[in-house]
Amino acid sequence: MDYHQDRFKDASLMIYQDAILVACVPGNSVGEQFYSHLGLTYGGIFMKSDISKEFMKRILTELIFYLKFNYLAVQFRWQPQIYNQHHVDTLDYFNFLDFNTFQSLNNLHVDLKADINISSKKTRGYRNGKFEKMRLEVNNDFKTFFDKILIPQLSARHQASPVHTIAEIELLSSRFPDQIKQFMVFEEKEPLAGVIFFKKGQIIKSQYAAATIEGMNKSALDYLYIEATKDFKDQNCYFIDYGHVNENDGTINRGLQRFKEELGAINQPVYRSQWNKV
């Protein structure tokens, strides 16, 4: 998290037993409020996978006592259950100790271990020849993707910019070359679409995705996601996390939801919890 440390006041916590790290909580503070780190896609509590339920409760009790003693308000953004086997028990215990769930996001993922039900609407490019001249390439040319596809499309369609700069993505890629993969679709030498995937263990997270106007007209993202799904399935990955489909006000973007569902994605809620002293 050090690459964007200038944007957040770090308040991360580490929990030890006999000098052995057993859990950590990435976090930042704003005044007297604690947040599950706002610079991360997902937050929550990261614990060793082999801890018992009783020990987990001891960790959570100490953590919640510390947070309530030191802050006036606490907010957690939890991970999808596919990342964390302790997820349900953790959320239930937080609710038991006076936290309330104030938001539920529709988060979609593809289960690569099961049969994937991809809509015929997504695969028709193979039948009508639209995908015939497309070429999929895995590369680290982040500048081309950002400058020619991602930044123009985010600006035009959402009046937004990528959370990461090109320099930050290049830095992350240099540090974690096996965990950050960029897939791009070309027709001859012309880039049509791109997706940057983050890999955590056997789970793949679709982090950035965009297509040019021509790429959208030719359904280049459909082709990219279908081919990438085949690739990740062949690598024995477990899931592809496509992220949530909620707008900033919590409403569901039905078009985005339909796009992901037609790629075989299913919904798994992602929750946010909070506690206030007053």
From TrEMBL:
Question: SUPFAM superfamilies, alphabetically?
Answer: Acyl-CoA N-acyltransferases (Nat) (SSF55729)
Q: What is this protein called?
A: BioF2-like acetyltransferase domain-containing protein
